[in-house]
Amino acid sequence: MTHGRISNSRRLPIAVALLFLLAAGASVAEEPSPAAVAGFNSYIGRVESRLDVQHGSAEAYLAPEDSARLRAGSLVIEQLTPAAGAELPGALLHDWRGTAFVPGAKGADFERVMRDFRGYPRYFSPQVLKATVPAQEGDHYRATMRVRQKHVLTVVMDTTYDVTFGRDNSGGTGAQHGYSVSRSTQIVEIESAGTAQERALSPSEEHGFLWRLNTYWSYQERDGGLYIQIESVSLTRSIPTGLGWAIGPFIESIPRESLEFTLRAARDALRKP
Q: Sign of the CA dihedral 61, 67, 72, 76?
């Protein structure tokens, strides 16, 4: 399976281009524009409406995939971002979906792993460094995580999410299918993380590597195991004019690689010993 790896021969020009990107200064990044936020929210509304319809049908609870391929151990990764909707004023929107199958797993296993936020540094290492749950009320959580993304440059962010779980226990046999919705409420870039010089960057200092991130999980028990499906919608800064040739493919590969890592790690955590 392709992982979007970057050859060593291309790393130097990409690294140089990224230095130019950082040197472009706060006037390029800052906060996303109101128009970009409105475009992201409008897109999210359509995604959530689609998922509401999808989750209303037991037969079509997951987006259709090649179940034989999944049961053979493959991950199925798809880009859903429409060509006309990827670019927003000063920003890029990314929408990816991934599906996997976990033999022998149950919906209760998904609930156990995904609700265990304090265990995320173990399940999703090395991307998740720490996680806490400042508040919980039933199926609704407020979760905070420190995450690290390493793609030529290493970026550390403190993130806060509003997370809700839902499930259908129809048939009286336990959780046959369910979902979770995670919406970012705050993302702060951290400079010199883990050192005495650590500090949170102000909105005018941040580089716009990640402005918004919504994650939608769906799961369904059948065929002797558990199908899990994740859709990730994110908003990042746009690529400055003249640098697309160097860092465009790199910037666009990060959401896919992050989703694939998360899906693979979740599948591994759900596997029976």
A: negative
Q: What is the mean pLDDT of residues 235-243?
A: 68
Instruction: Give the confidence band of 2 by pLDDT, cuts at 50, 70, 90.
Output: very low
Tens of pLDDT along 95-153?
A: 999 999 999 999 999 999 999 999 999 999 999 999 999 999 999 999 999 999 886 67
Measured CA to CA, the distance from residue 176 to residue 131 in angstroms comes to 28
Name residue, tokens 């919906």: 107
Spatial distance between the Cα atoms of 163 and 168, rounded to a whole number of angstroms: 17
Beta strands in the chain, from DSSP E residues, in sequence order: 76-79, 87-88, 91-103, 128-137, 140-151, 153-168, 177-191, 199-200, 212-222, 225-237
- Contacts with 231 (C-beta within 8 Å, 6 or more apart), sequence order: 47, 51, 80, 95, 96, 97, 215, 216
Q: What is the DSSP string of 93-132?
A: EEEEEEEEEEET--HHHHHHHHH-GGGHHHHTTTTEEEEE
Query: CB–CB of 197/191 below 8 Å?
Result: yes
**Residue 29 and residue 206 in contact, taking contact as beta carbons nearer than 8 Å:** yes
Q: Which residue has the tokens 């046999």?
A: 173
Its pTM stands at: 0.85
pLDDT in tens, 132-145: 999 999 999 999 99
Domains belonging to the chain, first-starting first, are 18-270 (3.30.530.20)
b/e per residue 249-269 (b: at least 16 CB within 10 A): ebbbbbbbbbbbbbbebbbeb
Q: Judging by DSSP bridges, how do beta strands 177-191 and 153-168 pair with one another?
A: antiparallel
pLDDT at 197 over 60: yes
